[in-house]
Amino acid sequence: MSLLDTVNGPRDLRGLSAEQLTQLSEEIRAFLIHQVSRTGGHLGPNLGVVELTLALHRTFDSPADPIIFDTGHQSYVHKIVTGRRDGFPTLKQKNGLSGYPSRAESEHDWVENQHASASLAYAEGLAKAFRLRGNRHHVVAVIGDGALTGGMAWEALNNIAADDDLPLVVVVNDNGRSYTPTVGGLARHLTGLRTSPRYEQVLDVVKRQVNRAPLVGSAAYDVLHGIKAGLKDVLAPQGMYSDLGIKYVGPIDGHDVLAVERALQQAKQFGGPVLVHVLTHKGRGFPAAENNEEDQFHTVGQIDEVTGLPLSVSERTTWTDVFAEELERLGRADDRVVAITAAMLYPTGLHRFAASFPERTYDVGIAEQHAVTSAAGLALGGMHPVVALYATFLNRAFDQVLMDVGLHRLGVTFVLDRAGITGNDGASHNGMWDMSMLQLVPGLHLTAPRDATRLREALHRAVTIADAPSVIRYSKEKVPEDVPAVDRVGGVDVLRRSPAGDGAGSGVLVVGYGQLVGTALGVADRLVDQGIGVTVVDPVWALPVDPALVELARSHELVVTIEDNLVVGGCGSRLLLVLSEAGVMTPVRCFGIPQEYLPHASRGELLSDLGLTPQDIARSVIELVAGSTGEPAHPPLVEADRPPAEG
Ligand SMILES: Cc1ncc(C[n+]2csc(CCOP(=O)(O)OP(=O)(O)O)c2C)c(N)n1
Ligand SMILES: CC(=O)[C@@H](O)[C@H](O)COP(=O)(O)O
Ligand SMILES: [Mg+2]
Q1: Cα within 13 Å of Cα(181), Cβ side
Q2: Does any ligand 2 atom lie closer than 6 A to the CB of residue 603?
Q3: What does the pLDDT look like over 339-380, one tens digit per residue?
Q4: Is 347 in the pocket of ligand 2 (CB under 6 A)?
Q5: Which ipTM was obtained for this model?
Q6: pLDDT recorded at residue 1
Q7: CATH of residue 374
Q8: In this structure, are 231 and 257 located in the same domain?
Q9: Residues 203, 253: contact at Cβ < 8 Å?
């Protein structure tokens, strides 16, 4: 039996010797590589926190001492030591183990939101509640150096620094990277530390001091102050924290369980907020990860567990690929175009633009609010910024879009990848909110391209819009084949016109948005089989609503909208409102995502569970048409012979 087999809860860690901890760390690393290479997931981050997580659970009494993981993608080891080892073959799968903390899974999991930089605020609030209620336990927050670049983290630190007896331990897991090396002034200092020839000396001195006496705050600074001045400079961050009034312990070798444990013990005994600075390596123990310059296997699909090479490489183009290529082309044609990423250069495809135009590419860290308002500043200065984010992460910067960009009528383009249902990353990763939020911004232009040609055209149009924000959003799916228009009415592309059968009504207008245009065409196939007339359109620019769409609605007996966004506040509901204001009485039925936090599952599973499939939507529409005409639905739909629609 392996040591790992004996660990079914944190208490099983308590009696282990130093040698056993080393063996257990090795077994956990082998387990992570074996499991995650098969399921996909955040392999690199979790390989980097093995010893840290063991030290945390040996020092603190979870769940009575809550351990809150920022973003939560690095909580696999936490899950392993809290009794969920056997769930890993189902990682990120429907009804399987979540890839992030999950309150439904375990009492040891406290926070599920995967939007970075929030852990310190949660922990600060929880610690205040403990103090008010006389709860003598500690709250621990584990935050990465990347997440520490987020504004919320500094808002929390400002409050923590002013609260001398808060029972809070902040652990900074500093591996020097988000996906790529972490950017910003703080990161620059830390990189200096890590590359300093005296790096080992610093760790050794701190380790010896931590062993000997409480080394917190000014003591740490004095000790380090004794080292050559050159080193002290690179250790400014600990000075920075101490100067803020937060006690600092570190830097600690994050792969030395006992050294981390002693530092955590001291922090725990201090009696007020302490920041423990732990240095780790993302991907540790897996050379393919450690040597991967792009992201050190921040997140992987199914890979070979020895070489780390992907087990399958899709030939099909992604939306990200199309965007990356076209933006670089745009950058050559227009030197006003600049690009901004929030620590996701490769995932958003901006690396191509950055390679050609490094001086016009900005990585601001995980700081979407800063990204948006900095873009507003760039636009004020005559540039045309393109801010590339994952759709769900724009939520964090809605006010900046509304007021810092929209109110000032500034030409900023937002390119939102992973729009719609992403699925396996769970509730806070689905890009299902943006159209509902953004349709509130006066003057904003939004398009959900249906194919690569429309995406290219949209980019070229967007960078010419100089008096309002423009938004282009697309999903995580592969790009479907081009869908040519058979006609155009105003700015609206007509994709299909099938007249009604004899005596039937004026037919159904099906409005498809973005990736779900494929679904709309699948619905049309089924309506035509039933003799129902149908017109399928793509609004192209969904916001503002094109007057031509209003006239098309007026001439049909029913309008059906299909979008990969919340129904509430989505583009369908916006069209409904515009039709109402125009006095168009055609009934409208909006299909989209319900106002719920969705469980983790594949995109296809969730679309099917939500009834966002051609057959389900067609069935509803046929019932609606039958209900309105009093005619019974024609023979039941035969699905066996139908190919699944893109969705
Ligand atoms: C608000 C927000 N923006 C972007 C992301 C995407 N994201 C997930 S993890 C990650 C990098 C995190 O880096 P760090 O905090 O240093 O943790 P590490 O992976 O290095 O352990 C990013 C950018 C996110 N989860 N939340
Ligand atoms: C944790 C996080 O926010 C990202 O790493 C996310 O997992 C990215 O997922 P994809 O890039 O695979 O869509
Ligand atoms: Mg990091």
Answers
A1: 12
A2: no
A3: 999 999 999 999 999 999 999 999 999 999 999 999 999 999
A4: yes
A5: 0.99
A6: 83
A7: 3.40.50.970
A8: yes
A9: yes
